[in-house]
Design brief:
Blueprint lengths: L1 E13 L9 E2 L7 H12 L6 H10 E9 L2 E11 L2 H10 L5 H6 L2 H6 L5 E21 L8 H9 L21 E5 L2 H5 L21 E6 L10 E14 L4 E13 L5
Parallel strand pairs: 2-5
Antiparallel strand pairs: 1-5, 1-6, 3-5, 3-7, 4-5, 7-9, 8-9
Length: 262
Amino acid sequence: MTEFLLFTIYAPLMSWGDIAVGELRGSWDRPSRSAILGLLAAGLGIDRSDQAGHDALEAGYGLAVRVDCAGTAMTDYHTAQTMRQSVIQSVVKKLGGQPPRAAILDPEPILEKSTFPPETMLSRRTYRQDALASIALWVRAAAPVYTLERLAEALRHPVFVLYAGRKANPLGLPLSPRIVAATSLAGAFAELPTFPSILEWPRGAPQPTASAEITHDPCDGFETGLQPLRREVRRDGAPQRTRWQFAERVVEVGVVARMEER
C-alpha cells in the first residue's frame, strides 16, 4: 500500500502557464507540476527566493493530475506600462543605485527624471473558466523534508495566499486535502469524486465522458492501474524559481474509468 495526498482545485478562472511566445501567454488545460509545487510552497511559507526549499519539494514528491473538467478558454487583452530597460538603467544610476525592481514598483522618481514616455506592453493571456482538477501526491525515494500530513495541514492553513496560477485567480472551493492508502494510482483517485455536488456543471463546458485522463510522474514501487495512452514532454519542472526558468520532463498519460460521486 502507498499513501497519497489528494486534493481538488476549482476556480472560476485558472491559468497554468504554457510556453510563452511574444505577446501570447497561453494556458494548459491542467495544472502544471511547477504550479502545484508552488501551491505547496506557498502553504508552507517557502519564499520564492528560497531555492533550496523549492529543490526539496521538486526532489521529494511525485505528482499526478486528473482533469475532471477542462473548462472553457478565455483570452484577456492585457496592457501594462513600464519604462524601457535602457531608460531604467540610466535613471537608476542617477538615483544612487536603486534596484531596478524597486524602481519599477515605484516609477514616480523615474517619470520625474526621464524625458522618455513610458512603454506600453501588450499581451493576450489565456485563462480556463470553471475548470476542475484532482491532484495526487506521493513521497519519492528521495527523503522528503515534509510528511504528507504536514503538506495537508499547509493546504488547510496556508502561510501565503493560495491561488490558481495567477494572483488574480482566487480559489473557488477549499482544497479539502486528505490522505488515503491505495495499491495503485487509479485506486487512490477512486477515492475522489470527479465532480462535487456543490458545483453545477459549467454551461458550455464539455460533458463528462466514460473515462478521465490522468497525467502522472513515473510511479516507482506501485502500479498505476491505468490504461496507457501516450507520453508528453512538458516544460514545467522548476529548477530555478528566482529566474522563472523551467525544465523539460517526460510525463505519462493514462486513462481510468470515471467513478460516481461518493
